[in-house]
Design a protein that fits this description.
Layout (H helix, E strand, L loop, with lengths): L9 H13 L6 H13 L6 H13 L4 E2 H7 L4 H21 L9 E2 L11 H13 L7 H18 L14
Parallel strand pairs: 1-2
Helix pairs in contact: 1-2, 2-5, 3-7, 4-5, 6-7
């Protein structure tokens, strides 16, 4: 039987993630568990599960979520974790994409933009770049962002997931 994801060291886990990417096995459930676990480990105190829960809760209510609110959900000081947020959310975007969900990070915005859901140009560009890296065709970043935000709100209304234990693909 294969080793559970949680038992790998950080460097071993990163190697597994890299191997799955190299072998184009990014839909494999074990890869998704590895990605999720790495997000927990490298989140700088930002908790992957709490982020997923907070995004789902906000989306179900039709609300946007601020970076500060995400930090608060994880029990960390936003001012001290703002730089860790970028990699945390990058992992969240890839995780949601690989699960076949909309890019759930689309509803995470600056505090000042909670009512409108707008992203500042640099953030929007980063979001569009991350989406492009995942294979999305982004022609207009504003339209793409708005479409993803609506997709997140629609998805959250009916989302239900049952936990599953994944085992690694034999190739890795």
């Amino acid at each position: 039987m294969a080793k559970p994801v949680a038992e790998w060291t950080d460097s071993e886990l990163q190697n597994i993630i890299d191997n799955y990417r190299r072998k184009a096995l990014t839909s494999d459930p074990y890869y998704l568990q590895a990605l999720e676990d790495m997000g927990r480990r490298k989140g700088g105190g930002l908790d992957f599960d709490k982020t997923l829960h907070a995004v789902l809760k906000a989306a179900r209510a039709g609300n946007y979520l601020s970076y500060g609110q995400l930090a608060q959900e994880s029990g960390v000081d936003w001012a001290k974790k703002r730089y860790a947020m970028t990699s945390h959310l990058a992992g969240l975007l890839e995780f949601s994409h690989r699960k076949g969900w909309p890019l759930i990070g689309a509803i995470i915005v600056n505090q000042q933009k909670l009512k409108s859901g707008e992203m500042d140009p640099a953030t929007r560009k980063g979001f569009a770049t991350a989406a492009t890296d995942l294979g999305y065709a982004v022609v207009d970043d504003v339209t793409f962002m708005r479409d993803q935000q609506q997709a997140v709100f629609d998805w959250a209304k009916s989302f239900q997931e049952t936990p599953a234990v994944a085992m690694p693909a034999d190739a890795c």
